[in-house]
Amino acid sequence: MKQKHQVMVLLALVVVALLVWSFEWRKHTPAMQTAISIQNYKFLAVDNPQIRWAELERAQKTEYKSNGRNPFSVIAPPTPQQKADEQKKIKEAKTILPPPPPPPPTTANWPQNLKYFGYGMIPMGTERRAFITDGEDVYVVNEGETLLGRYRILKVGNANLEFQEISTGLHGTTPLEEQPGSPSL
Questions:
Q1: pTM greater than 0.90
Q2: What CA–CA distance (Å, rounded) separates 65 from 79?
Q3: DSSP-derived secondary structure for 10-72
């Protein structure tokens, strides 16, 4: 019984192998398919396959004239109506322009909390010193030095103080302010 069973399985496998082989035998390999397609190729129906020199010369002499469209862009050029609307918007925008910004300052501003109240001179030297107050604090600054890291003292005069704002480079002056004296007894 065991041997009969093995023979039946063997026959079944042989039948399956024959079926697979017969189906694959009918199919063509890629090389055979290419050869068959070349054999079945139908040529174009061209009356005269020679080069047409006159048409070639005419095509070479043709000059390209653009219509304004970029051939490499998918965005279509604006229509004449869109161009007219855009021009109209530009004209309207020109008539309703905001006022121009104020011109930049030409002189530096001296802070209101700083007061130039006096000057002095070293007996042996030529540099003059300015006395500047900021409420309770008093600063003594020579000509050419900086005050609070923002102002360079250029000239200490009898009636005014010339300075330069370091960040902007603008020059300015501030007057000498007389401090009221203490009442005498």
A1: no
A2: 18
A3: HHHHHHHHHHHHHHHHHSPPHHHHHHHHHHT------S--S--HHHHHHHHHPPP---S--TT
Task: Give 182's Cβ-side CA count (13 Å radius).
Answer: 1
Residue 120 φ then ψ, to 5°: -155, 175
Q: Which of 109, 111, 112 is nearest to 170 (CA)?
A: 109
Can you tell me the distance from the alpha carbon of 153 to that of 165, in angstroms, rounded to the nearest whole number?
9
In one-letter notation, the amino acid at residue 67 is N
- DSSP single-letter state for residue 185: -
Question: Are 178 and 165 within 8 A, CB to CB?
Answer: no
Cβ-based neighbours of 179, under 8 Å, separated by 6 or more: 115, 117
- What does pLDDT average to in each consecutive run of 10 residues of the chain (185 residues)? 89 92 72 70 74 91 81 82 88 73 75 80 76 83 83 83 83 76 54
For residue 123, what pLDDT is reported? 74
Q: What is the pLDDT of residues 156-183, one digit of tens each?
A: 888 888 888 888 878 888 887 776 655 5
- Confidence at residue 39, expressed as pLDDT on a 0 to 100 scale: 74
Beta-bridge partners for 118:
131
**Distance, CA of 174 to CA of 155 (rounded, Å):** 11
